[in-house]
Design a protein that fits this description.
CATH class: Mainly Beta
CATH architecture: Beta Barrel
Radius of gyration: 19 Å
Order of helices and strands: EHEEEEEEEEEEEEE
Structural class: mainly beta
Shape: globular
Largest sheet: 12 strands, antiparallel, barrel
CATH superfamily: monomeric porin ompg
Strand order of the largest sheet: 2-3-4-6-7-8-9-10-11-12-13-14
Distance between the termini: 25 Å
Number of helices: 1
Number of domains: 1
Oligomer: single chain
Length: 293
């Protein structure tokens, strides 16, 4: 959670910082930014395909945390790396001229069978408002631990925890410029008809200009896997205000990911929020792959 800007449980925290150039006076034209983004995505796609097919192994299967908001209790296998890349476009309801385009990156490394360390970020963000702001996003450092896994046949949910801290490398207006930290409780419950319910709930301490604000987060995702490849999701999420004069957010996600191979998955998602201070809608797509062993 993957911040970061689909308003996911992590992306709710993230923004962005500037490129090393003086973007007010010397930034390249907008078309250059778009060409850079798409060129990078195409290069990553080629790398993903070549690495994935070269290292196909029936023992390991990619289990991405994207594109939905909820994170499962699944952790990356020990000594393996999972890379999750994506692109998100968001449009704001209260100002139809305000748009946001962000590249998204998550790196997850398995430390043990039940513990992973992860780095979430947005390496490139473009915000169009009165001005055209481009920058490198904030980073979120965290771990995910699966603390309880029921014996097969039992009806108890699997449980996990995910503490994290957001490093404020972003500058305004793309990011808040303040340190945030929090923790999530994760739960996975198997349901009849081969369906699964994933629930996340947590608290985040958000840095403010004066003191801090405690934010509540929650998300519930219902999914079903078809033929070990296709997994569609329907999800509801909630985030309490992130500023003292702000508003709560309630939203809906419809997502899916498809395993091209056992180690490579592509995904797509659409999100709608009901709060006028949030994106009225967001579209996401991405690719994930598992490397190692």
């Amino acid at each position: 959670m993957t911040g970061m800007r689909r308003h996911t449980l992590l992306r709710t925290l993230l923004g962005c910082s500037p490129f090393p150039w003086s973007w007010r006076e010397k930034r390249p034209p907008a078309s250059t930014h778009h060409r850079w983004v798409w060129s990078a995505l195409l290069a990553c796609g080629w790398l993903v395909a070549s690495m994935g097919w070269a290292s196909e192994d029936d023992r390991f299967t990619v289990e991405p945390d994207r594109p939905d908001i909820s994170n499962s209790t699944h952790t990356v296998p020990v000594h393996m790396l999972q890379v999750e890349l994506g692109l998100e476009y968001a449009r704001f309801h209260d100002d139809t001229s305000e748009r946001r385009l962000a590249a998204q990156t998550t790196l997850r490394m398995g430390l043990t069978d039940r513990l992973e360390v992860r780095l979430d970020g947005e390496p490139l963000v473009r915000v169009q408002e009165d001005s055209d702001d481009v920058g490198l996003g904030d980073l979120a450092l965290g771990v995910k631990a699966r603390v309880f896994e029921p014996v097969e046949g039992q009806c108890w949910p699997a449980l996990g925890i995910q503490p994290f801290i957001k490093i404020p490398t972003a500058r305004t207006p793309i990011g808040s410029g303040r340190l945030d930290a929090g923790a999530l409780l994760l739960a996975d419950q198997d349901l009849p008809w081969e369906m699964q319910l994933t629930v996340n709930a947590g608290l985040v301490v958000l840095g403010q200009s004066h003191g801090a604000l405690l934010q509540g987060l929650a998300a519930a995702s219902l999914s079903r896997e078809f033929s070990d490849r296709l997994s569609p999701y329907l999800e509801l999420f909630f985030a309490s205000r992130e500023e003292r004069d702000g508003h709560d957010t309630v939203g809906l996600d419809v997502d899916a990911f498809y395993r091209v191979t056992r180690r490579i998955a592509v995904d797509a998602a659409t999100e709608m929020t009901l709060n006028r201070r949030r994106p009225d809608y967001a579209l996401r797509t991405g690719v994930s792959w598992l490397v190692g062993r």
